[in-house]
Amino acid sequence: MIRIEKERIDEFIRTLMETRAVYAPALDGKNTMFAPVEDPAGIDHNIFNTDKSPKEIFFPHSEVLFEYEGEEIKKVERDVRPIVVWGLRGCDARSLRLLDKVFGSAWQKPGNDMFEDPYWKEKYDDAIIFGTACNEPRSTCFCNWFGSGPHDDAGMDVKVVDTEEAFILDPVSEKGKKFIGSLKGWAEATKKDLATIKAVREKAEGLMGEAFGMEGIAEKMADLFFKPVWDDIGAKCVNCGACAFICSTCHCFDVQDEGKKGKKGKRIRIWDTCMFPLFTKEASGHNPRDMSKDRLRQRFMHKFSYFISNYDEHLCTGCGRCVSVCPVNLDIRDVVRAVMTSEA
Amino acid sequence: MKELRETVKSLLTEGKVDLVIGWEKGTMPGASTPVFIDTAEKADSLIFDSTCRNNLSVYFTKDRRELAKDDKKIGVVVKGCDSRSLVLNITEKQIDREKVTIIGVPCNGVLDMKKVTGKVDGKEILEFTDDGERVTVKGREFEQTFPLDEVISDSCVTCVRRDAVEHDLFIGEAREPGSDENAYVEVEEFEKLDSGERWARMEQEYSACIRCYACRNVCPSCYCNVCFVDQNDPQWIGKSPEITDTMIFHIIRNLHVAGRCVECGACERACPMDIKLLLLNRKVAKEVRDRFGSVTGTGLENKPAMADFKEDENQDFIMG
Ligand code: SF4
Ligand code: SF4
Ligand code: SF4
Ligand code: SF4
Ligand code: SF4
Prior knowledge:
Radius of gyration of chain A: 21 Å
Mean pLDDT of chain A: 94
Oligomer: heterodimer
Bound molecules: iron/sulfur cluster
Helix content of chain A: 25-40%
């Protein structure tokens, strides 16, 4: 564990920037998000969970896959420096790991013959994730429902704890250990630091609301598929894409060509969501998820049932973003409670 | 609140309505959530205060349009702006006036939560109360009270019809509308900019858009069976959040609600990116008022400006 005094944090970030593209929380206009760091002095280390989730670092809202001109296909040049993310919260670090199960190599199950996504892998595989432990979780946080918590380090390479005086960097993964081991000129964390970490951790965990039992939710949801509980849950949803686009784990996309058909243009992939009617509309004009409640049900079935069948985990980390942005305050925690307490 | 609950209870027990759409307390401080009440017992959860930000008329449109068409008699709780949406939807023949029971509630403006958190420097609010004139927020180690007027949505600051323009019942005493002579100050400021500056201003605002369409989906005036952005054969518009396509989406939506937008601000409050959508909406509303003498959704006898033609109306935009 190394110790970086607050006064020297810019210096530390600058060393990262020498060889890597560093992303950190930033305020852009009215919203917070992860942005490439140009000047370490501009990083706001106090930004809590960003308004926009960090998934867009590795899975941009709109990503050019290749360009074409006539028959010729051109690869798109991109910044090839390995990525460092600074200031990611625990929930978001776990979100990236969940996405890596879908796009990358983190899902090695016998017989798994799924594709690996080169566009994700080229960014994520070499990335180093510095995760910041949460000393003051918010009332919308519910990471503890998933066995996690404000000081959980799963999905991080290096865990960072802010002790007011200093940032204590605790390498977690092999990659993190190797990286921290290669650094020179930084002091070791002191006994006092360790005691502070323990204290802030206990305080943070004490601020979390009570965790709701999620055991058996996948089967329960599957049993309830045709039940009227979904009419009640879905009644107020206006079926926008706010929850999905702001979500750190939602990852559906559409692929489109932009430009002159067959002549010159680019193929892009763009975020899409099961909330949009076009998402499942078939060429015949038929839409198997025709009504808004069918689409809403899909979002939660995916998170709490299908994803568990496919990847043994919930597709939600409890970051609370969807809770804050939903224009009708359809709270995902209420959805879980409604499902778990209704009769199949 | 008590009167509202009692009114709804008697409507339900007397069989005058089968369902009432209103608001109940939400899961976050300062939040309410829409609720569908079909038994008298459930009516006790109804609330009305500055947290009731949604325009509930949206539940008669889009996928829910059957609500307005089937045999059910529906009651709906409305602020001034929401009632104008109902009126618009009735004049556009989306809702049968006979089927709805309009319950007006006295509105003092609804919250802009960004303004509230701005007051406490972004600190987390854990408790919220509103006495109709002042709001009090509490968090860890702080408590602050300020006048409601300072934290209401921009749409409410300029609103001159806070009470339902059309209603069957009113909780309390409905106030007369004020004059909208000076209602468009910010639009007039915007008009003073030259076209380049106006465009830059709009680009700056809309560049944060993530194309989630929450603005469209909460809007009771946006109810096409298939929205142009949801068509792909032909595809009218690119889907990436690139500024050109984003601007096309917003400008077209703006024109599609020209003379139909009631300036309720529901779109702006729904936007997760805090984009100031009302400026363009209100610019168009002002044009409609000045050119056609029409204020949307203020009377069942008035046709929406774009669905009406008078021989003597202002046509200088056609003649040049
Ligand atoms: S959900 Fe947990 S990990 Fe995420 S910000 Fe809240 S406390 Fe931190
Ligand atoms: S579903 Fe909501 S709480 Fe869960 S990861 Fe997505 S935004 Fe966060
Ligand atoms: S749950 Fe909320 S944010 Fe998500 S689609 Fe429905 S209304 Fe929109
Ligand atoms: S466009 Fe916005 S302000 Fe106008 S009616 Fe729709 S939701 Fe209300
Ligand atoms: S709600 Fe906001 S972010 Fe979403 S499409 Fe509308 S303007 Fe864009």
